[in-house]
Amino acid sequence: MQQANKRDFDAVANSWDQEPRRVKLAQDIVSAMRRELPLDAGMEVLDYGCGSGLVTLGLQPLVGKITGADSSKGMLEVLQAKLDEGKIKNVTVQLLDLERQTLEASYDLITSAMTLHHVQDVSALIASLARALKPGGFLALADLETEDGSFHSDSKGVLHHGFSREFLAGEFSKNGLREVRVVTAAVMEKKGEDGGSRSYPVILCLGRK
């Protein structure tokens, strides 16, 4: 991500979970993943761009091991505190920025929620995630469906105004994933400047290696 337009997630880490709408969105995304994926206790999972771990911890009881990876040290500290408090043993944290680093391990499932729109080269990211899947592994990426830029009141660090279903499905297929499909994981309601409510779909793209 370009440094000049990079949001300081460390600064907001401690208050991240205090937004009920954000917590509800993570729960909806986890519910969609549970419906669409054959989660089991043998899976090794990577949650990329995990933030404070809302999705990570939603998946944690349903899989074997899960790594919460993020480029924000502050967010990972918040997640680690949750792990320590809950004495959760099957989750590890990893400081990782795939725009500068590569993945060394491979996984049965890689997930990401609301991270893609902060990434400059989404095509390259999807390619790197697909490469890190074990044969038969699943990729599940959730983000906003294409919108007009009104979703974020603060656009710093927002590099894309959502994504079309066709773009995400095309990138999955381009990288050799099969059984590709896109579902609606959630719909967020937000008030516009005119005081009216607007709906913003969050889509989940899935594919298998």
Automatic annotation (TrEMBL):
Record SUPFAM superfamilies: S-adenosyl-L-methionine-dependent methyltransferases
Entries under InterPro entries matching the protein: Methyltransf_11, SAM-dependent_MTases_sf
Molecular function GO terms recorded: S-adenosylmethionine-dependent methyltransferase activity
GO biological process entries: methylation
Keywords from the named record: Methyltransferase, Transferase
Domain Methyltransferase type: 46-140
The name this protein goes by in its record: SAM-dependent methyltransferase, type 11
Annotated source species: Citrifermentans bemidjiense (strain ATCC BAA-1014 / DSM 16622 / JCM 12645 / Bem)
